[in-house]
Design a protein that fits this description.
- This protein has a single domain, classed as 2-Layer Sandwich (Alpha-Beta Plaits).
- α3 packs across α4.
- It has four helices and four strands.
- The protein is globular and about 45 Å long.
- With 124 residues, the protein is an alpha+beta fold.
- Helix content is 44%, strand content 19%.
Length: 124
């Protein structure tokens, strides 16, 4: 299995609450509807919380970068499976539709994404 991780920053015009609501209520159903076409095995949204621990955690690491608004995780069987899914006309269309919707709520220029393999250290 391989995972695409997408660290999301919201568009400046949106509050964190507006961003997360749109992501959960509008974008998630679009991904779910296109999952078979794109061969997505798993899709998880991790929504950033505001907690009393935030400043202490950042300070303990000398972090100066503002936290992301959330992280999307999508799994495929392999890099080849991901590439094949995107190379079909239906997959390319589904990818375009998702990207078009992402432009409504994600600051695309400041939201990095990457494909990686997992190395599980604790848990299953």
């Amino acid at each position: 299995m391989v995972k695409l991780t997408y660290a999301l920053r919201r568009k400046p015009s949106l509050s964190r609450e507006e961003f997360q609501r749109y992501w959960r209520e509008q974008h998630a159903p679009l991904v779910r509807d296109r999952a078979a076409t794109l061969r997505i095995r798993r899709y998880v949204q991790a929504h950033t919380l505001t907690t009393p621990l935030d400043d202490a955690l950042r300070d303990s690491r000398g972090a100066s970068v503002e936290a992301y608004d959330g992280v999307a995780e999508l799994w495929w069987d392999s890099v080849e499976d991901l590439a094949q899914a995107m190379s079909t006309p239906e997959g390319a269309q589904a990818g375009r539709e998702l990207l078009e919707d992402e432009a409504n709520f994600i600051d695309l220029e400041h939201s990095p994404l990457w494909v990686a393999g997992e190395n599980v250290v604790v848990g299953t």
